[in-house]
# Entry
Amino acid sequence: MKRFSGWVLFLIAVFGGTSAWAADASVWGTDYDQAIKLAAAEKKPLLIYFSGSDWCSECKRLTKEVFSQTEFLDYAKKNLVLLNLDFPQKREDRVALSPRNVELAKQYKIYGYPTVIVLDAEAKELGEFGYRVGGVKRWVGLIDELIVKK
# Structure
């Protein structure tokens, strides 16, 4: 029974969140192709967060200080589609999620973590950031500046 339960939890972790996040922009998606389609359909920019959630100290800080804050999530719900492409080193889902994420990291030339890329609704790159201090207010300002420049 343990094997079945573990397998079911694994499938829910990999596939279960995909449809839920599409309905609520305050939840981070993990499927690039769905995020691209959603951004186009909603005519919203796509924020891609390349992270190392279980090993990258600056990723942990960025998540805690900005991306998990209600103020940011409220902003994102109205203005963005959110996508987290994670590169964990310890978690069990590493094997299942890593191949596509590795392909996308190569496509976007990701060499450090965290890296945040903002695309417009047509998937054209607007800008890229690493970790920045300043909390939600600074990040919303950086993102807004990119969106307005478009």
Summary: The beta strands are 46-51, 81-86, 115-119, 125-129. Confidence is low (pLDDT under 50) at residues 1-26. The chain is about 55% helix and 15% strand.
